[in-house]
Amino acid sequence: MASIGSVATAPLKSRTAGDRSGASIGFLVCLWLALAFAVIALVTLLVTTFVDGYPRLDARLFTDYSSQVIPERAGARAAILGSLLVITVTAVMAIPLGVAAAVYLEEFADDRRWYNRLIEVNLQNLAAVPAIVYGLLTAGFALTIGLERRVVLSGAIALALLILPVIIITTREALRAVPAEIRQGSLALGATPLQTVWKQTLPSALPGVATGTILALSRALGEAAPLLLLGGLVFVSYDPNGLLSGFTTLPIQIFNWTGRPEDAFQEVASAAIIVLLGLLLMMNALAIVIRNRYQRSW
Amino acid sequence: MVFLGLASALSVAITVGIVFALLLPALDFFREVSVWDFLTGTRWAPTFSNADFGVLPLITGTLWTTVLALLLAVPVGLGVAIYLSEYATPRVRKVLKPALEVLAGIPSVVYGYFALAFVAPVVLEQIMRIELGTYSVLAAGLVLGIMIIPTVASLSEDSLSAVPQSLRQGSLALGANRMRTTLRVVFPAAISGIAASIVLALSRAVGETMIVALAAGTQAQLVGKATDSGQTMTGFIAQTATGESTPGTLGYNTLFAVGLLLFTITLLINIISIRLVRRFREAY
Question: Does B170 touch chain A (CB under 8 A)?
């Protein structure tokens, strides 16, 4: 019945006499208040958004384009399609690059070399650069190569740059969790280092890589700040139809609607938030399913 | 192999790219406005005919929202972390940790909506009876604080949990109760990780855009009290960028000068946080 762990911690729990003093109870109450605050904030945010937005969560939201003048007729069709397209292009760019960089750093890089250490520190720092700075970078980059700023490709580049460090960091963690024996076994059987990575290490790390990548993409899906820099992505009344097509995304559309004074725009903004949170929930659920079903413990 | 190496070199190229993308237009900007006037001027009016480019109003805006956010997020985040690490049963932890992850996964534009549509008019004005305009650094700062609670809580919880059990047992064996053990033994042992979590939260608060763009206001002024409206560095970039700005003009270059300042500030904060994390890792 009693496991080793519970025996070891049993004295911690039974010795409660000193925990009944006024100061101790006051301290615990403070901790509970902190916890209650965080939970209440979360619940309030979700409930108010849902209550505000539920009446507007109708078919029109999915089939109509945004209206500048009549908020009651505004829909998020262009934003939903735009978000999906931009995220897909972001994934196509960021995942191969991120995984490749992680494989290099974790499997091949000699961390005694100065340039590999430079990459390490640089990655840690990049992960904490404000999102809006990636927008400035993309605006400058697009101008340099003569790419139109307000198209799907520019938006996807901005978001891919933003989540690349996150993908690299989570992929490295997944690779690190694969035991050395797997690599050694493969090498001992005569596989080259590249074959070992491709056929053994990466497949073993795949669930962890997939989970981290999906979470990174869900961050990109909710991010608006870098896209603001690409200029006026708001009044889009057509479906985005390619890499060089104009677009808007859900967070941008929500930002624009929220910033308007009319109550009806607030309503449609909260309805769009429900759609965005729904999409994020689906992605997170997918990540959890992958983690629980395929994650191996070695 | 070459592809793999190039992919990781890309991360360095991104940093170099950021520096150049910010620096070149910023240099153009500083050819017309002196660095001194930019950093010490107290009037920010880049679009007026008698334009002024003193960035201090934007800095006070950022300072107010960031300090308010930390005043909320540090105590609450640490309370949650201590509770989860030292007091919660495994079952409670299993429910609360995912709840924190949900809080961390909500997009910042949603928090911005929350600040503008609920916190400012309902919580602050109706319930707490504080006189506010539509926009205030108070509402923006508080909601920004809610947003960074998970950053403080989860990193601090990690470093509290990393403190070896033997330290707790030793303290309890000497007759200290749980509160004393937590505050005098576990907390000091985890302090560099906790400090790193706060510094990281600070960096996120400084760089956060959507909440302040929606809830703090668009009037760049020296913010004197929490109920004032004000514009932050990120808020200015967001507001100006959504309008039309033609590359090469002074207005366009202003964005990059402010962006460069923002990048430099967060870079310094990040270097401190990386140092702290490194020290925390060496501890045990």
Answer: no
Between chains, do A38 and B100 touch, taking CB under 8 Å as contact? yes
* Of B242, B231, B240, B235, residue with least CA distance to B209: B235
Cα dihedral A277→A82→B216→A158 (10° resolution): 110
Q: Which fold has domain B2-282?
A: MetI-like fold (1.10.3720)
A101–B165: do the CB atoms touch at under 8 Å?
A: no
Beta bridge partners of B44: B53
Return the percent helix, strand and coil in chain A, to nearest 5: 75, 0, 25
What's the ipTM? 0.89
**Strand pairing of B52-53 and B44-45?**
antiparallel
User: Among candidates A176, A158, A169, A29, which has minimal Cα distance to A87?
Assistant: A158
Instruction: Select the CATH number that applies to the domain covering A78-294 from these four: 3.40.50.150, 3.90.480.10, 1.20.1260.10, 1.10.3720.10.
Output: 1.10.3720.10
Confidence of residue A15 (pLDDT cuts 50, 70, 90): very low
B15, HSE (Cβ side, Cα atoms, 13 Å):
19
Domain spans, chain B: 2-282
Task: Mark yes or no for CB contact B270/A168 under 8 Å.
Answer: no
Distance CA B276, CA B271 (A): 9
Q: Best interface-test mutation with A: which of B95, B209, B264, B277 has the largest number of A CBs within 10 A?
A: B209
CA distance B109 to chain A (A): 6
Say what the pLDDT of residue A7 is.
46
**What is the distance, to the nearest Å, from the Cα of residue B22 to the centroid of all Cα atoms in its chain?**
21
> In A, which residues are within 8 Å of B13 by CB distance?
none
A30 CB neighbours in chain B (<8 A) are: 79
Residues of B in contact with A104 (CB under 8 A): 4-5, 7-8
Q: How many CB atoms lie within 10 A of CB A253?
A: 28
pLDDT at residue A298, rounded to an integer: 65
Please write down the HEC assignment for all residues of chain B: CHHHHHHHHHHHHHHHHHHHHHHHHHHHHHHHCCHHHHHHCCCEECCCCCCEECCHHHHHHHHHHHHHHHHHHHHHHHHHHHHHHHHCCHHHHHHHHHHHHHHHHCCHHHHHHHHHHHHHHHHHHHHCCCCCCCCCHHHHHHHHHHHHHHHHHHHHHHHHHCCCHHHHHHHHHCCCCHHHHHHHHHHHHCHHHHHHHHHHHHHHHHHCCHHHHHHCCCCCCCCCCCCCCCCCHHHHHHHHHHCCCCCCCHHHHHHHHHHHHHHHHHHHHHHHHHHHHHHHHHCC
Task: Residue A15: list chain B partners with CB under 8 A.
Answer: 172, 177
In tens, the pLDDT along A234-291 reads 677 778 888 888 888 999 999 989 988 888 888 999 999 999 999 999 998 888 888 8
Of A100, A259, A256, the closest CA to residue A171 belongs to A100
SS3 A154: helix
Please report the pLDDT score of residue B4 as a whole number. Answer: 83
